[in-house]
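[step 3/7] inverse_fold.run input=structure_tokens len=340
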């Protein structure tokens, strides 16, 4: 990468003074990059962008290389100066020339969709996780019926609904530990490999590119992804519990949950208007389009579909509470027939 910068030449359309200044800046950037002083590399690149703002080679080729391919077919121009301004302001000890493809947290970000706007990898990963959750919850909430212990649950000195809520919260916490633990361990192991580093969670990524270059720290993207998974976990747990109140068959329960998860790829929502589909949970699997406001989510702010999804989760659990309350009501005895 440093050789490429050294060999880079300013555009022929630049003035002689700008060409001389740009060549001097390229040499300094190459020298500092070779010494791995990445914070200084960011400052020198920002200086070059300010010194020679009309150099299209610097703007569109040399300093844009780390971002090439990030936006797929979307015709989006990244504000490179804004990215480096953010890096310098936060004094990030990492530079896109190295960190975009080699730092462990950035590699994790790529896997979760920070740079895969048109690929199906992040969405497929989410579908696999949701399918596993559907099978787990579908089997778990019919377990009492399979073991004939449901009568014991009904005799507990607490409401069935409160017991199931606490049970679900504990299960979701354990699932978070089971998922996040290996992810953290693998990320740390990758950082120990040659030519790799851990990276920085404040490293900026471009969000909402349809509205221009808007930057958020990497940790914020991870939080957005984690919230979606947890909302899905609560929704699927509620769905499994609701199905179990109707059918005690685990196969039926799991099948119903899988239909909900895969309703979008199975085109089960095609009978609804496109705008109506975006208010249904099966649509909330389009990662990272949901975070970047692309395609069908272009006009929907992130906070809006998050609030909609939360409302679905709360409504589902409220419905479960009502159904359980109705089931717990004692049935009136049949009226006695008058004696003949």
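[step 3/7] decode complete -> sequence:
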């Amino acid at each position: 990468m440093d050789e490429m910068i050294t060999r880079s030449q300013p555009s022929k359309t630049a003035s002689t003074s700008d060409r001389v200044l740009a060549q001097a800046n390229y040499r300094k950037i190459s020298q500092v990059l070779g010494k791995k002083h990445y914070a200084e590399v960011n400052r020198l690149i920002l200086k070059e962008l300010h010194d020679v703002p009309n150099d299209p080679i610097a703007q569109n080729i040399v300093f844009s290389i780390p971002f090439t391919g990030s936006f797929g077919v979307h015709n989006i121009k990244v504000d490179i100066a804004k990215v480096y301004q953010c890096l310098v302001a936060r004094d990030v000890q990492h530079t896109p020339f190295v960190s975009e493809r080699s730092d462990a947290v950035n590699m994790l970000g790529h896997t979760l969709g920070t740079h895969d706007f048109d690929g199906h990898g992040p969405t497929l990963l989410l579908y696999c996780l949701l399918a596993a959750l559907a099978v787990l919850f579908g089997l778990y909430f019919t377990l009492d019926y399979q073991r004939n212990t449901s009568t014991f649950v009904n005799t507990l000195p607490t409401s069935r609904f409160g017991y199931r809520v606490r049970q679900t919260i504990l299960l979701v916490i354990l699932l978070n530990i089971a998922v996040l633990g290996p992810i953290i361990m693998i990320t740390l192991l990758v950082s120990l490999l040659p030519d790799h580093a851990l990276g920085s969670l404040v490293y900026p990524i471009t969000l909402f590119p349809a509205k221009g270059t808007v930057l958020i720290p990497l940790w914020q993207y991870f939080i957005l992804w984690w919230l979606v998974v947890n909302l899905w976990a609560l929704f699927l747990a509620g769905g499994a519990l609701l199905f179990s109140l109707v059918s005690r068959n685990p196969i039926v329960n799991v099948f119903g949950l899988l239909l909900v998860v895969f309703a979008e790829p199975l085109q089960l929502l095609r009978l609804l208007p496109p705008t109506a589909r975006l208010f249904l949970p099966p649509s909330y699997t389009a990662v990272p389009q949901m975070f970047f406001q692309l395609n069908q989510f272009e006009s929907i702010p992130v906070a809006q579909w998050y609030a909609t999804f939360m409302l679905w989760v709360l409504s589902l659990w409220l419905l479960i509470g009502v159904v359980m309350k109705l089931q717990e009501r004692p049935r009136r005895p049949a009226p006695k027939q008058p004696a003949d």
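[step 4/7] annotate
The chain has two domains: 2-93, 111-327.
The chain has a mean pLDDT of 82.
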